[in-house]
Amino acid sequence: MALSPTNQDPLYPTERLIEAAHARIRPYIHRTPILTCQTLDKLAGAEIYFKCENFQKIGAFKARGGVNAVLSLTPADQAQGIATHSSGNHAQAIAYAASVVGTKAYIVMPDNSPEVKVNAVRGYGAEVTFCTNTPEERELTLQDVVARTGAVFVHPFNDYAVIAGQATAAKELVEDAGVPLQTILAPVGGGGLLSGTALAAHYFSPQTQVIAGEPEGAADAVLSFRTRQIEKAPYVKTIADGLLTYLGDKTLPVILDHVTDILTVTDEEIIAAMRLIWERMKIVIEPSCAVPFAALLKHKERFSGQKVGIILTGGNVDLGKLPF
Predict the structure, then answer these.
(1) Residue by residue, what is the 3-state secondary structure of the chain?
(2) Which Pfam families match (predicted)?
(3) Which end of the chain is more exposed for a tag (fewer CB within 10 A), N or C?
């Protein structure tokens, strides 16, 4: 899929639009803490600043983009209801955002979504429709839901209002770390967080490079990064259920312009990194969240002696199905 330049779009997240997004969502999100751990620093050979979005509203960074996108709609559009498709965290974000503005949410979720995420979505009052877990089935089912309800679709990642909202996590990380960061690491699925993180670093901390972690079992972004067009993963099989989708025509150009590299990790490396954070930091994170830390551990020499920010993206893990 060929790409055209997108930064001429009036909705493209500029420094001003990201600042406006931050002000817009501030009453509805947490300014999450940054935690450090000397044991993990020694293990990694770097000084790590963990931005704990697992403590965010709905248990994940997705609250930022979902709330910004819904609050950016006109009152008339909000009143129609909001629809989306998501394996869980964006679903919860839209359900939460819809409850903030007093409208209905219609969520398409894969039929193998973690039960903890399905229950949370329903807990915000959303209507859930299940589908087979492929991008194509998600799209088809969503089209049916929108046709039936008239709801406005908010894309999980390929939406500039969503990207601007996600950018606020890295903006806070840069502001609150207390030291200049050489690198920020974030996971990549559809690229909403990664492109937002890259733009936030570009505007608010231009000396900071942004690097992504991606599961080997969903390695589309690393291919897209090399070929400069949207690619699909050669195969999809990973524990990181939040990172299964491929990039969009809004996220990939930002990533090509502002991301330094994408590093892949195995499920074994993801599980080991996840376990370390549970054991050493005493906090709950989900597998997708552990991917950037796994990438750092795999490539320690690359980050040796650096001050590194890592966005811990979420903690919505099914406690009955831990991989340890």
Answers:
(1) CCCCCCCCCCCCCCHHHHHHHHHHHHHHCCCCCEECCHHHHHHHCCEEEEEEHHHCHHHECHHHHHHHHHHHCCHHHHHCCEEEECCCHHHHHHHHHHHHHCCCEEEEEECCCCHHHHHHHHHCCCEEEEECCCHHHHHHHHHHHHHHHCCEECCCCCCHHHHHHHHHHHHHHHHHCCCCCCEEEEECCCCHHHHHHHHHHHHHCCCCEEEEEEEHHHCCHHHHHHHCCCCCCCCCCCCCHHHCCCCCCCHHHHHHHHCCEEEEECHHHHHHHHHHHHHHHCCCCCHHHHHHHHHHHHCHHHHCCCEEEEEECECCCCHHHCCC
(2) PALP
(3) C
The model's pLDDT over 275-299, given as tens digits with 9 standing for 90+, comes to 999 999 999 999 999 999 999 999 9
Predicted confidence at residue 1, as pLDDT, reads 45
Q: Are residues 164 and 277 in the same domain?
A: yes
Last residue within a domain, chosen from 153, 184, 201? 153
- What integer pLDDT is reported at residue 48 of this predicted model? 98
Q: What is the pLDDT of residues 163-206, one digit of tens each?
A: 999 999 999 999 999 999 999 999 999 999 999 999 999 999 99
The predicted structure's pLDDT at residue 67: 98
**Same domain as 266, residue 141:** no
| pTM given for the model | 0.95
Q: Residue 5 — pLDDT band, cuts 50, 70, 90?
A: low
Based on the fold, state whether residues 117 and 211 are members of the same structural domain. no
